[in-house]
Design brief:
The protein is α+β, with helices and mostly antiparallel strands and 217 residues long. The chain has one domain. Helix content is 44%, strand content 11%. The protein has nine helices and six strands. A two-stranded antiparallel sheet has the order 1-2.
Length: 217
C-alpha cells in the first residue's frame, strides 16, 4: 500500500507531506508578524551595538542546516569583532562536554552583548533566516561547522534531518545548561515527537522564558 501524502515517519526525524507545507506556512506567517512587532527593539539593539563596540552590527556564520546544507545565520553581534580569531586562546576554558564550545563568562562578550544574550534579543535577526527558509521557528539549534565536524556518532547527525530552529521545547523549559549527550538525546526526542500543535505551543512558551531569562543560551 502506498503511504498517505500526510504521513509523518515517526522515530526517523523525517517529516513528509502536508505537515511540511503547514509548518513552513506557519513559520513564514509568524516570522513576518514577529519581525514587524519587534522591529523597534531591533533598531534600538543595532544602535546600542554601533555606539558601544567597533565592528559590524550583525554576526554572521556558516551553520549546518536541513539535509546538511550550509547556510548563513544572522544574529546581533554580542562579542568583540575579533572574537573568532581569539577562539583558540580560550578553547581550554570550555565548560561543556563533546565537540561544542560554551563558557558562561566568555571574556569576548561585550557589556551590551551580555544584556542582549540574557534577554535573547541577539536571536531576533534569525527571523530573517526563518523567512528565507534556512530555519524554522521551532527546531534543533543549528551548529557551527566546527561543532558539527566534531560529531563522532551517526545518530548525532540525525538532527540535520529536519530544518533547524530558533527554539526547542526543552530550551524554553529552562534546561539550556545540560551536558552534550543529554542535549543530543533531547533533540532526538523532540524530533521524534514533533507535531504542528507543538509548533503552536512552543512560541507561546518562549515569551515568558525570555522575559525570565531562563531561555537564554
Amino acid at each position: 500500500m502506498m503511504p498517505c501524502c500526510s504521513h509523518i515517519a515517526h522515530y526517523t526525524g523525517v517529516i513528509e507531506g502536508w505537515p511540511v507545507v503547514a509548518k513552513r506556512a506557519l513559520d513564514f506567517s509568524l516570522a513576518q508578524v514577529a519581525l514587524i512587532a519587534v522591529s523597534p527593539i531591533m533598531l534600538l539593539a543595532a544602535l546600542l551595538i554601533k555606539l558601544t563596540s567597533p565592528g559590524p552590527i550583525l554576526f554572521t556564520q556558516k551553520r549546518i542546516g536541513h539535509n546538511k546544507r550550509k547556510f548563513t545565520i544572522y544574529k546581533f553581534r554580542t562579542m568583540t569583532a575579533d572574537a573568532e580569531n581569539k577562539m583558540q586562546e580560550i578553547e581550554h576554558l570550555n565548560e561543556i562536554s563533546g565537540p561544542v564550545f560554551k563558557i558562561k563568562q566568555d571574556p569576548r562578550i561585550t557589556p551590551v552583548g551580555r544584556f542582549l544574550r540574557k534577554t535573547s534579543i541577539d536571536e531576533l535577526p534569525q527571523l530573517i533566516n526563518v523567512l528565507n527558509g534556512g530555519m524554522s521557528l521551532v527546531g534543533s539549534r543549528p551548529l557551527p561547522l566546527r561543532d558539527y565536524e566534531g560529531f563522532s556518532q551517526d545518530w548525532h547527525r540525525r538532527r540535520s534531518s529536519v530544518r533547524p530552529g530558533i527554539t526547542r521545547l526543552w530550551q524554553v523549559s529552562g534546561r539550556s545548561s545540560i551536558p552534550f549527550e543529554k542535549w543530543m538525546e533531547l533533540d532526538m526526542q523532540d524530533i521524534d515527537k514533533w507535531s504542528l500543535w507543538l509548533d503552536f505551543k512552543i512560541p507561546a512558551k518562549t515569551i515568558p522564558a525570555v522575559l525570565g531569562g531562563s531561555g537564554a543560551a
